[in-house]
Amino acid sequence: MIATHTFNPSVDITYSIEPIKVGDVNRVKDMIKNPGGKGINVTKVLHILGADYCAYGYLGGSHGEWMKEALERQNIKTAFTSIQDETRQSLAINDGVSQTEVLEQGPTILKQEQESYLETAKSHISEITVATISGSSPHLDETTKYAHMKRVLELYTESYNIVDTNAKELKELLEQQLPVHCIKPNQSEFETLIDETNLSIEECVKMLKSHPFFRNIDVFLTLGGDGAVIKWKDEVYRATIPRKEIVNPVGSGDSTVAGIAYGVHEKLDPESMIRLALACGTSNALQTQTGHIDMKQVETIKKEVEVERL
């Protein structure tokens, strides 16, 4: 089974306003409301893929209740921990040219809520083959984000663990050599992680092969429309994706993580896993909803993804 973790889920609201007028009254042309947060997006895509999974996370207040009910309506399998504080909202404003996001910080997770979360995760630990931890951490009472992440990761000693979080948190995890087996940075996050800027693809490949951070882990470095560079075990691959007219890119990285997790769980060969992961990420970008893929599109796009071993 695949365990997905979302420490800081959100109610994602997207407003379409064309054109947006700063400092003036704006009327919403269209509104989409989704259960969100990076790990929730991963979960929704795993559900569409037909994976065996369970979603873990903190939910509280009226926003958390709405998210729980919305996911139940989609038959998403969850094991959430209830909290006293309110689950956050995230607002995206799309003006037809660009998207502006306003992200709330999130709730405070009390000490007893953290302990309850760990106990819930432990209850199915023997069944887990792959674990994903995605997104930011909220404020954690009496502990640090690193310490909380460490406690969760150390539960998963027998699984393949994928972590997709901001470069600052990720850097600390890698420095301490916690059980992280795969990361999925975009180029900006990758450069922040290794304190470099404006790297060419060739320089990225060199860093993947030589930087000590990546010696014992798999790295799926996404490059937006330029595809990805992937270090998998002792091999490095260059993957390119077909050009498509993007509808909404939010959640594409999470959809890629879902494809990686599913591929590892199903023991796909590296090239098949890469094609699936990028097809999931690309299909998500062609949807209005976040964390959503079209399986027919995925099957078509998989055939169009080109993978070369370097």
TrEMBL record:
UniProt xrefs under InterPro entries:
Carboh/pur_kinase_PfkB_CS, PfkB_dom, Ribokinase-like, Tagatose/fructose_Pkinase
Carbohydrate kinase PfkB domain: residues covered: 7-291
What does the record give under GO molecular function? kinase activity
E.C. number, please? 2.7.1.144
Report which reactions are catalysed by this protein: D-tagatofuranose 6-phosphate + ATP = D-tagatofuranose 1,6-bisphosphate + ADP + H(+)
Q: Which family does it belong to?
A: Belongs to the carbohydrate kinase PfkB family. LacC subfamily. Belongs to the carbohydrate kinase pfkB family.
Q: Write the protein's name.
A: Tagatose-6-phosphate kinase
The taxonomy runs: Bacteria, Bacillati, Bacillota, Bacilli, Bacillales
Give UniProt keywords alphabetically.
ATP-binding, Kinase, Lactose metabolism, Nucleotide-binding, Transferase
Enzyme superclass (EC): transferase
Q: In which pathway does it act?
A: Carbohydrate metabolism; D-tagatose 6-phosphate degradation; D-glyceraldehyde 3-phosphate and glycerone phosphate from D-tagatose 6-phosphate: step 1/2
What is the species of this protein?
Staphylococcus felis
